[in-house]
Amino acid sequence: MSIQVFGQPVSRGVAIGRAVLVASSRVDVAHYFIDPEQIETEVARLRDARNEVAAELVALKSEVPEEAHAELVALLDVHLMLLHDELLSDATKQWIVERHYNAEWAMSAQLEVIARQFDEMEDDYLRERKADLEQVVERLLKALSRQAGTGAAASSSAARDFAGEDPLILVASDIAPADMLQFKRSVFTGFITDVGGRTSHTAIVARSMDIPAVVGAREASRIVRQDDWVIIDGDAGLVIVNPSPIVLEEYRFRQRQIELERAKLNRLRHTPSVTLDGQVVELLANIELPSDATPAIEAGAVGVGLFRSEFLFMNREGQLPNEDEQFEAYRTVVQAMGGLPVTIRTVDIGADKPLDRMSAHELRHEHSLNPALGLRAIRWSLAEPEMFGEQLRAILRASAFGKVRILIPMVAHVGEARQVAQAVERAKAQLDATGHPYSAVELGAMIEVPAAALMMPTLVRHFDFVSIGTNDLIQYTLAIDRADESVAHLYDPWHPAVLQLVERTIACANEAGKGVSVCGEMAGDPAFTELLLAMGLRSFSMHPAQVASIKQRVLRADVRTLQAQLGAVLAAESPLEASMALMKMRPH
After folding, report:
1. In the chain, what percentage of residues exceed pLDDT 90?
2. Sign of the C-alpha dihedral computed for residues 519, 522, 527 and 528 taken in this order
3. E strands within 462-513?
4. Is 403 inside any structural domain?
């Protein structure tokens, strides 16, 4: 039977494929595909973990006090029985052999399958054994995590071995940024998550991969089963589970139409980005990994407006990258861009992008009530001067190979600007002492909090350029957690307060003769292109996949005409009025 689930549309297009579930767990679980030659190793890891847990349970039985003997021993016997049950052990092995999942992912996937069977049991006693099963699996996952020499994630070719001709769609309650980083190199053609909003990290990465995604779909991971056929309608925020043949064919037709439209847009890649009235507009790329530089150039970007350096710090089992490793990554991007500018944002750890839990630099605010307001971004960097110094030296060293700019996230105080300037000067002095060359770099501030936007006339004097991070600016202006699907409908970039802060920031930067760009999601949303041009923005930074569609808007725009109508949008009293006023600005 076909089922429809609605969520937040976060990446346009249509995806059709078989569901691959990533089960949630109380234990952090690594998810990656293994190469065929790694299968026996993973099966052995699973077997060793099971033997270790069995030994633990037997040892616990021998230590049970006599007064509690019968009840506790019976419970431990149940756990031992579940541990050796073929439904758990043999079926988990099948996930490894047939699906090429790593052992942890295989175990959590099988837990999801069996847990649903327990939920459907009519007998109360049997249904309550689900908790015992979860405890056994938790022990197994912990045993797997203790094993040394766990393999790294394999290439996407391993996934194709079992996928055959069927495309795959990832379904999860939530996807951690570290997992998203891994899945970015994999074979999935779409993402569905129970939680998240339009600017949650899952949404941002899905857009960067240019694949359809729906987040905040509530119970999707409970409704969808492994291998179900699933359709993602990324325009409507709709997920269709087990579609009928007629619906399936309709969406396949839409897929073909979208592919034709994308092919037309790709022809604009090398067309100069100039408005009808001769205004040159800079279209830059947001990237997360050094390997993203080449796709950025291929998409027609004229530089990197945002290199999210924090992704170099993730998925590292507690070992942060040292200065030399960071330098190599930054240099790779700078050289790949062939003289085009590269803006590197210093590490923006915190909120929805925590470091690995094993890290020696584990964030103290990780368990705080509101991490979005805690020790994050530049606050954390200034609290970790040794780490910050390493990163600044690595960026400066990379500047010897091309045009590099440093971008500081979440600046809110002039005092932070002064501290950053001092840290940069210290880094330069240290490089001078060691004989490492570097070139002049511009220093910029991300305008992400209302305080920074309101202080622009003062703040801009301390920086060479500013970049507006609209995702967080909207979040902090409207007091909306952008990753919380329960309030996602209130996260509105059309809110008059947001538009006025963006316009004020652009105007202040232009008046001061300082560069200004937008690197948040508004820059890559065609709905805002004309408005941002009218506000005076001439530098947009977005995911490479969005460059062509924004360029199309720029080529059709007449800025003088747009500016004459800007006042009506800024005078709007509601998001609806603002969007309606903008509709009148657009060419018909």
Report:
1. 50
2. negative
3. 465-468
4. yes
Identify whether the C-beta of residue 53 lies closer than 8 Å to the C-beta of residue 140. Answer: yes
Q: Answer yes or no: do 199 and 300 share one domain.
A: no
Q: Strands 465-468 and 515-518, how do they pair?
A: parallel
> Domains in the chain: how many in total?
3
**In which band, very low, low, confident or very high, does the pLDDT at 155 lie, cut at 50, 70 and 90?**
very low
Burial (Cβ within 10 Å: 0-12, 13-18, ≥19) of residue 476: buried
Domain end among 114, 146, 178: 146
The reply to whether 447 falls in a domain is yes
Shared-domain flag, residues 550 and 500:
yes
From 79, 365, 519, 543, active-site residue: 519
Tell me which H or E stretch contains 372: none
pLDDT for 351:
55
Q: 């069927």: which residue's tokens?
A: 166
Q: Name the residue among 171, 189, 182, 201 with its Cα closest to residue 5.
A: 171
CATH of the domain at 167: 3.50.30.10
Residue-wise pLDDT for 298-347, tens only, equals 999 999 999 999 888 876 666 789 999 999 999 999 999 999 999 999 99
Q: Is 519 a catalytic residue?
A: yes
- Same domain? 348 vs 467: yes
**Domain shared by 235 and 296, yes or no:** no
Q: 371-388: per-residue pLDDT in tens?
A: 678 888 899 899 999 999
Q: What is the average pLDDT score of the chain? A: 86
Distances (CA, A) of 374 to 370, 384, 418, 467: 7, 15, 21, 22
Note the pLDDT tens digit of each residue in 359-373: 334 444 444 556 678
Do 285 and 213 fall into the same domain? no
| Residue 268 included in any domain | no
Pairing of the two strands 168-172 and 14-22: parallel
- The answer as to whether 271 is a domain residue is no
pLDDT at 222: 83
Residue among 79, 100, 201, 495 flagged as catalytic: 201
- Token code pair at residue 176: 């951690």
- Do both 315 and 247 map to the same domain? no
DSSP state of 150: P
Q: Which domain holds residue 289?
A: 276-585
- Residues near 434 by beta carbon (within 8 Å), at least 6 away in sequence: none
Q: How confident is the model at residue 358 (pLDDT cuts 50, 70, 90)?
A: very low
- Do 479 and 558 share a domain, yes or no? yes
- The average pLDDT across 531-540 equals 97
Contact between 521 and 204 (Cβ < 8 Å): yes
